[in-house]
Amino acid sequence: MKKNKAPVEAESSENSDSEELESEQELESEQEPESDQEPESEQEPESDQEPESEQEPDSEEDLDPKTHKKSLEKLKKTDPDFYNFLEENDENLLNFDVESGDDASDKEDDDNDDDEKVHKPGPLRADSDESDFEDEDAKPVQGKITLKMVAQWQAELQNEVKVKLTTITTVIKAFNAAMVRATSEDGASTGEYKVEGSSVFNAVIQMCVLYLPGAIRKYLGMEQSGKDPQKCKHFIKIKTHLISYLSDLLKLLGGVTSENILTVLLKHLHQMSVYVACFIRIAKQALKKLLTFWSTGEETVRVLAFLCILRITRNQQSALLDQVLKAMYLTYVKNCKFVSPSTWPGINFMRRSLVEMFSLDLNVSYQHVFLYIRQLAIHLRNAIVVQKIENRQAVYNWQYVNSLHLWADLLGATSNKPQLQPLIYPLVMITTNTIKLVPTHQYYPLRFHCVEILINLSKESNNFVPVLPFLVEVLTSFDFNKKHKKVSMKPLDFSCILRLAKSQLMENGFKDSVIERIYALLLEYTANESHTIAFPDLTLLAVMQIKQFLKTCSVSNYTKKMRQLLEKIEENSKFIERERAKINFSLSDEKMIVAWETNIRTKGTPLQTFYENWSKINKIQKRKKITKNDEIAGELPKIKRPKLTDEAIQNAQKENKGPVELFPSDDEDEGDHFKAEDDDDTPAPKAKKVKKKEKKEKKKPTKKKAMEVDEEPVEDKGDIVQEFSVSDW
């Protein structure tokens, strides 16, 4: 044995066994520490005698294992911190009874005696943290899922006669094992089954998606009756398994990013939504995830998410509709803060789907719609009363305008039902006063958006809304003769703008866009009102102001458009006056007036016919703007040049007194053109030109031959432009 002459230190885990036993006995007897040096002795072990408390052992052989065990137990009670330290840093010391014979004894009999005396290390290890962690390790897995097992379960699910409950529960457990593999970090399963490998994982998911909904319906007996699953006889037996499966399905939905896989899973959830509605807690979790997909997903994902929301809500309408309407509206407002050509389709889809959700129960919807319209009115009142930028910005933003758009669509869609009709008047007043809040040139785009909302509301609800003054006011208040300071290649697009910058007001594209929007909105509104009996009186002031604009405006492009519109309005007014002269009933008879206007609408009016033709062309132009021009246009147009006959060539030669050039050089023409503009007195280039002509005349016969030879390749190869690529330029 090595002899140690170092002091006893509790912090070191490399000390000899004798030094640590000394420290243990010192703590037991609470004696004063002895000298730093250990006594050197080579005594033989006395296994039959127990050491006294005053004696100090020189080695492990001097101790009886039972006594040492008792001393360790006392140490654990008196100083548990030091005991834990020994346990963490030197387990061999605590398990001395197993290893001491190998280290100190020279006889095999002594080793066997020590092993028999101590035997099991269990009592000392039972209280350690590491052993507790090992005891709570994963449960034993019954079996590994194979493709053969999946095929067998799939066949049992497709059984036409009867589906067993055990098959359904087994499949749900397999799905849970697949989910554990997908979501856990190590993929360790804690259930009855374990999924290993992507092929088995995909097979289990595919089996559940394709065959489990039908098997559950068959087991519950819903195929023939089509009743509520909660009223089915066997629903209680499958209830807990359904909760487990739906929870795992929602976890899988939350962890998937691929649009294709999301589409498949959402279709599956749509099939399972009947069972989702049976559990309110699961339904709320599902709706929360579906709202995210509905507002931010790809187009197909959005549609499927909305169908799932609609189906779940309908199955539990009394419990869920109120919360769903509130959550969907707040999600809509949150996601319509920024508008661009790419986000417009998503915002329009959310608005249309919200209209459908609010139409489910108009009595419940009235409370929400009244509250939100009232909030819009409060914001507008604050902006009018308190003239500050903050209050104005609370109104002049996309969230406010899109909210107006939503409620106008809803009131127009439910115009045949009386519940929401009292809200039309306050909404119209809010929209018109929004226009009047800041009636400057910068906010013309916002004005046009509000006017469009009013026109749609008037058309859908069949109520008269005075829109013409807001459009004609632009013609009379803005000076279209004013020269622009900047030139823009194309008109500004007002569809995604509420406010214009000052630099944009100086462009000629601004005035072009304003005239186009006024023309389109005036035409749409007058065509919508063209069948009414009061059309001539309704448009009288607008006609007078348009005539005033035509007198003052000197821009021919603008006057041409407005003159065309004026002619169509006057033509329609004369038509209505002729039809109105034939009536023989009183103007106070509302039923007869409604019948007369319906008859005129079915016959058609001149303005309505003109608007329908214009609308078709306008829609095509809008689609071209939204989609990519290259895809619509296809291949670039080819230049078709006329074939040159011999007579045409000879005639051209006589006129030009030289050979015909099939493809004259642009560079030479441009060079001569710029030189002629720079210098009027440039006789030298003209002299050179004459010399060139003389040279060409001398080489006439060769040129003719070249031309005759070149004619055929030009016809065969096609246009020479095809040989160039864009990168060459």
Automatic annotation (TrEMBL):
A GO molecular-function annotation: transcription corepressor activity
Residue numbers spanned by region Disordered: 1-78, 93-139, 651-729
Domain of life per record: Eukaryota
Chloroplast is among the record's keywords: no
Bias (Acidic residues) ranges: 11-63, 99-115, 664-682
One GO BP annotation of this record: negative regulation of transcription by RNA polymerase II
Biased composition (Basic and acidic residues): 64-78
Record flagged with keyword Nucleus: yes
GO cellular component: Noc1p-Noc2p complex; Noc2p-Noc3p complex; nucleolus; nucleoplasm
Main location: nucleus
Keywords linked to the UniProt accession: Nucleus
Pfam families linked: Noc2
Subcellular location field: Nucleus
Ranges of Basic residues composition bias in the record: 686-704
Entry's family note: Belongs to the NOC2 family.
Protein name as annotated: Nucleolar complex protein 2 homolog
Provenance organism: Spodoptera littoralis
